[in-house]
Amino acid sequence: MTLNEPHFHSSSENSLPSDRPRRRSVFNRLLESRWAERLSYEQYREKVRHVYDGPRGAILAVCSMLSGHLAFGERLLRERRFDLRGMRNILDVGSGAGQIAQHLLKYADPEARITCIDLSWEMLRRARRRLQSDRPGYLAADMCRLPFADQVFDCVTCGYVLEHVPDPRIGLSELARVMQPGAKMLLLTTEDNFSGAWTSRVWCCRTYNRQELRHTCESLGLRWRQELWFTKMHRWIRAGGICVEIVKEGG
After folding, report:
1. What are the angstrom distances between the C-alpha of 93 and each of 52, 124, 188, 198, 235?
2. Dihedral sign from CA coordinates of 216, 222, 223, 226
3. In sequence order, what are the residues at sequence separation of 6 or more whose Cβ sits closer than 8 angstroms to the Cβ of residue 22?
4. In which region does residue 27 sit, left (phi positive, over 0), alpha (psi from -120 to 50) or beta (all else)?
């Protein structure tokens, strides 16, 4: 391990609930992408960057619109189910084409500072062009190596990026480090079900089991305040992935 490479524990060391085998159907296991397991962290990071720099990244905003995630995500903020009022320093992790950032510009307080980070400079360029706003700061950064001091942000949004981290503890612990005590996070990530397996295949990412991810968060002092669902139908059919409001303990 070099100083620049996060250390991802094998399942035999320091086992946590997130390391337990996940109970998934055989079909889902076959369908789900295995890139994160087959490559070193550095190789996988370059694979992810290549995916989002390329054609798939170029159509990301359109895919979010067609899937309904763009409108549903806005609804969470517009209805204050995830309330941005009073937040002063917001970090948008994995900003992509600015899908969540555009909602932050609408519903965060006018004086709130917004920082958008993404592994791909190309995605940040697309976000800047799409948002047509100089209000956010744009920075290319790896969520496992955040270039910020401790306890800087009082709010974090992390939409469909944690699935690009082989071990969630590394990314989540970095987010916890830069969050102030009592800060909150909107976390959305791909769940280990059939639709999640398809998402994994298309975007070369992994999936997460809901209860295992909750245990991992809580082991890092990140308490799940509430599980959020886009609609009642999404909750009934368990669709839309994992969407949760998290609070850093100690506030």
Report:
1. 15, 11, 11, 23, 25
2. negative
3. 192, 209, 212
4. alpha
Residue-by-residue pLDDT tens, the chain, 251 positions:
333 445 444 333 333 333 444 455 666 766 787 778 888 888 888 999 998 899 888 888 888 777 777 888 999 999 999 999 999 999 999 999 999 999 999 999 999 999 999 999 999 999 999 999 989 999 999 999 999 999 999 999 999 999 999 899 999 999 999 999 999 999 999 999 888 888 888 888 899 999 999 999 999 999 999 999 988 888 887 778 999 999 999 86
Residue 161 has which token pair? Answer: 């990026």
Question: Where do the domains of the chain lie, and which CATH numbers do they carry?
Answer: 25-248 (3.40.50.150)
Q: Find tokens 């990026």 and name the residue.
A: 161
- Tell the residue number behind the tokens 């290319």, with chain if given: 140
List the structure tokens of 17. 């609930």
